[in-house]
Amino acid sequence: MAILKVMKLGSDVLRKRAVEIESHDLKKGRFKHFFDDLRETMAEYSGTGLAAPQVGTGVRAFLYMVDPGSRAKGAVEVPQTILVNPTFEPLDPEEVEDWEACLSVPFLAARVPRPRKVRVRALGENGKPLEFVADDFHARVVLHESDHLDGVVYLDRVRDRSSIRYTIDF
Ligand SMILES: [Zn+2]
User: Fold this and answer.
1) Which domains does the chain show, CATH number per domain?
2) What is the pLDDT of residues 62-80, one digit of tens each?
3) How far is it, in rounded angstroms, from Cα 98 to Cα 56?
4) Cα 111 to ligand 1 centre (Å)
5) Average pLDDT of 82-86?
6) I want to staple 113 with a disulfide (CB 3.0 to 4.6 A). Which of 70, 84, 95, 153 is the partner?
7) Nearest of 119, 110, 128 to residue 146 by alpha carbon
8) 43 CA to middle of ligand 1, Å?
9) What is the model's pTM?
10) Is position 22 annotated as part of the catalytic site?
């Protein structure tokens, strides 16, 4: 396994639409090594999510987790999960704002509006179809990571720009 370099805002790969992964490539384990590297890299940087383009690989896959012990107080715990070729269907017209940050946009955070509840369809890392409903912080994480597959970063979605702030003291 290897810790991969995390691309920062300004890298072309973060602004390109990533390409679909074929399910037979997943079933044959062709991405297993890459997914292991994603897991190791996310753990190294204490991330909540990490999308393939963030480590310079333009494919539609990301890793995420929801740890209720950290900032997602009261959230449902989601173990480390890889989603491939995800699509979303909003289930609640209400959008909610909350804080987001990103390993590719270091030292910044801002409030971002997101749908509160979505139905998620994707392939799992083994190529099997997955379908589930995500709400609140869980929905926010999967939507943030999925944006990376379309060349979008959370700053693009900030409505209240006065909320953009540094998370460290220089
Ligand atoms: Zn991000």
Assistant:
1) 12-166 (3.90.45.10)
2) 999 998 776 666 678 999 9
3) 27
4) 13
5) 98
6) 95
7) 119
8) 15
9) 0.95
10) no
